[in-house]
Amino acid sequence: MAVRKAGRVAASVAAVALLGAVVTGCDSDDDGDGDWMGGGKKSPSASAGPSDPAGKSPSRDTGPVAKVPPASVNDLAKVPTAVKGGVITVGEPSAKHTVKVYEDPRCPFCKKFEENGAQALVAPLAAGDVKVEYTIASFLDDNFGGDGSKNAANALRAAVDTGKFPQFHSALFTNQPEESDDGFTPAFLLKVGAAAGIKDAAFDKAVTGNAHKAWVATAMKAFTADGVSGTPTVEIDGKKAPADSLYDEADFGKALKDAGVS
């Protein structure tokens, strides 16, 4: 079974390399049986609860080590962040341009967007020329099993209250587990928070206690209400950005410039 799964993953990587722009993202209609990143329903880790075998609370002392996010995110340290309904907005409210980003934390193409195309947003965000509205979906939990997307969405909402949402958002995708692995446990998300520079007891409590469960559901409803069926989906001033521009900083920078974002 392990050999066959490894073969599927290798074939997926090869397919992505060959198809390039044809591969556009994660589909909310996918049943999880044959996804690009290897498929499969629930991984062994998906059945594990947030507590360890001894029944202790989640801690940062178990599991993988979290990596720090790219240094570029530090340019956004003073950019305001706000929540309205199911949307998290980063940027000056008076910004002339609006970029809408629809993401699922477990989606590998969202990671690819954040580490490539989205880097073109850092400068205009820091300059106040654009604001970014994030709608965080969690449909991949249904596709693959587990609660990783919901756990991560809950932590993203909690990060807003720390004043470090951009840093945590970046760190989340830097540390994204394989799509079919339900790796965004509360314990690991605390590590991601620490890697993003968050030292906040209220954040820890919100992550371990699933304090923003209702908001996660609201965000998913907003995603569905907007008629979006896959991630990442990006709109610039109401117009959908070309899918083949999302995974290259220069290409997405050109899409932003064409829309008047300096």
List the main descriptive attributes of the protein structure presented here.
two-stranded antiparallel sheet, 262 residues, disordered N terminus, 39% helix, globular, alpha+beta, 10 helices, 6-stranded mixed beta sheet, single chain, 12% strand
Oligomer: single chain
Rg for CA atoms: 18 Å
List SSEs in N-to-C order.
HEEEEHHEHHHHHHEEEH
Beta-strand content bin: 5-15%
The tally of beta strands, per DSSP, is: 8
Q: In which order are the strands of the major sheet placed?
A: 2-3-5-4-7-8
End-to-end Cα distance: 50 Å
What composes the largest sheet? 6 strands, mixed
- Bulk shape: globular
Uncertain stretches of 5 or more adjacent residues? 1-23, 31-57
Amount of helix: 25-40%
Quickly give the structural class: alpha+beta
If you average the pLDDT, what whole number results? 84
Number of helices: 10
What do you see in this structure?
The chain is α+β, with helices and mostly antiparallel strands and 262 residues long. The chain is 39% helix and 12% strand. Helix 5 (148-160) runs antiparallel to helix 6 and helix 5 packs antiparallel against helix 8 (201-209). The radius of gyration is 18 Å and the shape is globular. The termini are far apart.
Can you lay out the helices and strands and say which pair or pack?
Layout: H1 2-19, E1 26-27, E2 81-84, E3 87-90, E4 97-103, H2 108-115, H3 122-127, E5 130-136, H4 140-144, H5 148-160, H6 165-174, H7 186-195, H8 201-209, H9 213-225, E6 230-231, E7 233-236, E8 239-240, H10 249-258
Parallel strand pairs: 4-5
Antiparallel strand pairs: 1-6, 2-3, 3-5, 4-7, 7-8
